[in-house]
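Protocol step 4 of 5: obtain the predicted structure for the target chain.
Materials: sequence only (see below). No template structures provided, no constraints applied. The aim of this step is simply to have a reference model before the mutagenesis design in step 5. Sequence pasted as it appears in the construct record:
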Amino acid sequence: MGETRVDLLHLLEDLRDAYPGSTEGTILTEIVANSLDSSAATIVITTDPAAPALTIVDDGAGMRRRELARYHDVAASAKTRGDGIGFAGVGIKVALLVCTEVVTETRRGRHHVASSWRLASRNRAPWRWIVPEGRVPSRGTAVRLVPETALSPLVDPGFVESVLRRAFQPLFDPALATILREQYPRGVAVVLNGRALDSQGAEGPEVAQLSIRVGRKRRPAAAGYLVRAAEPLPEALRGVAISTFGKVIRRGWDWLGLAPAGADRVAGLIEVPALAESLTLNKADFIRAGARGATYLAYRKAIQEAVAHQLGLWGDVGESAERARRRAARPIERDLEAVLADLADEFPLLAPLVEQRAGGQRRLAAGPAIGRPGSSGAPLPLPEASVAGAPAPTTGIDSAAHETAPASSERASAASAHIVDDGRTRRPVRYGLGIGFEARPDDPELGRLVDSTVWVNEAHPAYRRAAASRSEGYHTALAVALALAPLAVDPAKEHAFINAFLASWGAAIERRKGRSRR
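Step 4 output (structure tokens):
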């Protein structure tokens, strides 16, 4: 009988490389995220360069003895995806690469235990029970890291504070306290070497509050703000940051698909707790396939609307490369919009890419949420963007037309939304599915879906042959079908989806030809 062996060192190195940023920054954010997931209200961090050591103590729920034992297993976790920031049980294990010892002490009820853990060889990471040192007074967990060198950034207070403020910016921003109160009812205080880290709100001559609501619910599903400065901002602060449960996941303009004229002077922060279900393993991006991908794309589009509307009020709307490519591909998109509108009922996960209505999106029949036991398959609510400006007025996105419009007019407006401000109608802004062209010589795929744009690989031999025979339209339709199939259906049903897509595409062309003849 054989057995499967694990090269533990190689596995930990791969996990480390999957996280963006430095190894020490990853370790710090993962430990703090674990404290937040345990409902901690106070996190006390102490750096000791002389030892050297870094100690993080929280007053969260703590762990029982069997939970602490399981805590040492790689990729083992008692957490549920969507209930907090962490869910995979791999983050803190990276500390074994740069620390000679990891000591964990936890207390929960009558359970008060501690362990010592280290990486002994490529294949072994032994741990043992030790006597608790009393770092946890009543309940919670304490983690003590012993770096390999006293020069480690883990014992540098400046490094620790900068990582915390950047990775957990919403926790220190009073403007987001309301939306985070449901997750952290007691609030969160961070103490570094005896000093509580103070709050830092948005600063700038122009600050606009953003609020994104789900359907007709009064409570916002996402909240944040935009700031426009008089002078260019530091590069690390530019763009819009999106966070969930207080942890910043993405930052910049690329993920949002917008590029204002003064991109170097505009920053923002938006907290979306519901996107915790869509986090990737390394918590540095969002899943873009299946039901979780549909949820992310829906919120992304709603945030797009809110941010673009505020930029329009500021007169700071620039032309992005993505939008220019969409305009070039507009004739093909007209046919594909009709196809996707027809297929959205049969394949509801396509709805976030195509259903753009004058009053904002209402609901998405996305089926049962993956990973949620007992899900009934009821339609998932979609964000409806509404902007409360400060000092700008609230959004003028008109919803009356949506309430009375028939289904045919709803589909006709699937690709654009008119932003109305003080009686003046702005030009329609398109947030549906886009088509772009890029050269990827080494990529065998015909196209790929990036957020809400299908990028067709014009360096593919099949595309070059299609261009030579003037059949780019069919090639583009096939590339879009192949790119959307993983999002729309399970792998076993992709062939049926592609057939349905191409059949609907052919019918749409015939309808367009009939209208042209008339």
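Step 4 remarks: The longest strand covers residues 99-108. Residues 25 and 163 are 6 Å apart (CA to CA).
Proceed to step 5.
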